[in-house]
Amino acid sequence: MKNLRLKAARAALDWSQQRLADEVGVSRQTINAIEKGEYNPTIRLCVAICRALNKTLDELFWEEEV
Amino acid sequence: MHNKYYALGFLCGLAIVLICGLALRHIFKKKCLMTGEYDERQKAIQGTGYKYAYLTAIFSILAGGIIEMLLGHSWCSLLMLALIGLWLSICVFITYCVIRDAYFALRSKRKPIMIALLAAGSINLAIGLRNTLAGGLLEGGQLNLNATNLLTGACCIYLGVMMLCRTIYERRTEENE
What we know:
The complex is a heterodimer. In chain A, about 65% of the residues lie in helices and about 0% in strands. Chain A has helices at about 5-10, 15-25, 30-35, 45-55, 55-60. In chain A, helix 2 crosses helix 3. Chain A is globular. The model of chain A has no long low-confidence stretch (mean pLDDT about 90). By secondary structure, chain B is mainly α. Chain B is about 75% helix and about 0% strand. Chain B is built from 5 helices and 2 strands; from the N terminus they run ααααββα. Chain B is globular, with a radius of gyration of 18 Å. Chain B starts with a helix and ends with a helix. In chain B, strand 1 and strand 2 (about 140-145) form a beta hairpin. Chain B has a two-stranded antiparallel sheet. Classes of the chains: A mainly alpha, B mainly alpha. The interface of A and B includes residues 30 and 33 of A.
């Protein structure tokens, strides 16, 4: 499932995937894979992304029930 | 006696390649061309890559045995068969990792690695073609160690070209994302 909230939070700061990747210490393709829903990051990486984007885990990674 | 000297020469060659490889690795690390730093996704993909390479090694040994059984005679020297399995496994691992973006470490520079691969491939292919034209690949109907250069050259060229194509593809997709 695509993580559109992550993409939106990144775009709100006008950051490129590369900028976010550099901030959290991963490759650009890893950020791309998370946004596309092709990779499930560990909690450590989720926390690092949330800190970089100034968001909470719930805001970016909690799946809302349908 | 000839075999003993040949084996010694082969071992010396291997030692030289190992020393040169370690020296290159040291230089690459010193110049920050190879950081050896991978993120969690890359490490997970490398784990799967090792699994596929391991399976390739097993199946290549099996395939070698089956071919020998079907032909009714040995088609390849034991060391050459081991080298074929080794190169196939290396190619499977590197191809899988490159395609899934897990081969190049973070902040590493790809260009020198690709140039080194293409240069090593060209030199080995040239030596391999010379060996082929001299007719020294087969000995008593068996593929001998003279085919090593041809195999190494073909694999290095394949890996270099594959990395180059992947890098071009990534740059194009990067522009779109």
